[in-house]
Design goal:
Blueprint lengths: L2 E4 L3 E4 L4 E5 L12 H9 L7 E7 L7 E7 L4 E7 H5 L3
Antiparallel strand pairs: 1-2, 3-4, 4-5, 5-6
The structure holds zinc ion.
Length: 90
């Protein structure tokens, strides 16, 4: 079982969250990018083993988007922060 400490709501079971994808990948620009760029962004994923940054949204709580650093080999959390803070470099 994975418990995610939401900055707003506290520790919650992962079933309250929705996985939102790899937080290390840049999305093609809105209204831009080739069909291949969008295909790769939507359908092609890495499957890393070890520490990985992921987007998760607290859909059954505050609806905040988070960047969760999770070790995919042990399914343990390393860090959690708001996505807006991660984008701002905080
Ligand atoms: Zn929350």
């Amino acid at each position: 079982m994975l418990i995610i400490p939401c900055p707003d709501c506290g520790a919650r079971d992962y079933t309250e969250f929705r996985y939102g994808g790899d937080a290390n990948r840049a999305r093609p620009p809105h209204g831009g990018g080739s069909l291949q760029d969008w295909h790769d962004h939507v359908f092609v994923f890495d499957n890393p083993k070890g520490p990985h940054h992921e987007y998760w949204q607290h859909v059954m709580g505050c609806r905040e988007w988070l960047v969760v650093e999770r070790n995919t080999a042990s399914n343990t959390l390393i860090s959690v922060r708001r996505a807006r803070d991660a984008r701002a470099g905080r």
